[in-house]
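To whoever is on call:

I kicked off a structure prediction for a single chain this morning and the downstream step that reads the tokens threw a length-mismatch warning. I double-checked the sequence; it's 171 residues and nothing unusual in it as far as I can see. Pasting both halves so you can look.
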Amino acid sequence: MRVAIRMAQLPALLTVALVVLLIVLSGSTGLVLHVYALAIAAIALVHLVAAVRTANPASSASPFDAAVRKRTRSDERLPELARVEREVSLGMATAFDLHYRLRPPLRRIAGELLAARRGIDLDASPEAARDVLGEETWEIVRADREPPRDRYGPGLKLATLHNVVTSLEAL
């Protein structure tokens, strides 16, 4: 009830002003009625917009705003990538880390690629796997590779790592 009274106050005031203006400006009746109609329409539009906003409150951000907004790049590294980088770094440093850290993922990758792309089982068909992988890669991923005698001996050289990765990518 109070809302209706409050909404009717301004149109009532405008109606009083209309009557006064019609009496004072009796020659401009058409212009005064047009201004009055325009003012009433503006008031109705303001109340309509307020009602729509109350019924449908705006969300925090529209999908368009979210798509347009620039995303901040986080400097966080993927944990898996950091782990692989660490294994490669360690595998290049010592023979122990090459054998126990870097060799298992290389062996897994080689086995999966050979099976999926060539139909070769790394352990069941070692000669076929050796022919496809090449000598350098085979020496690292073969099942009967002996652990290093010198744990602190040199690890994998960069050129060898490059050749291993290239042979795996060629599968």
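Update from on-call: the warning came from a stale cache, not from the record. Cleared it. Sanity check on the structure: Residues 29-55 form the longest helix (27 residues).
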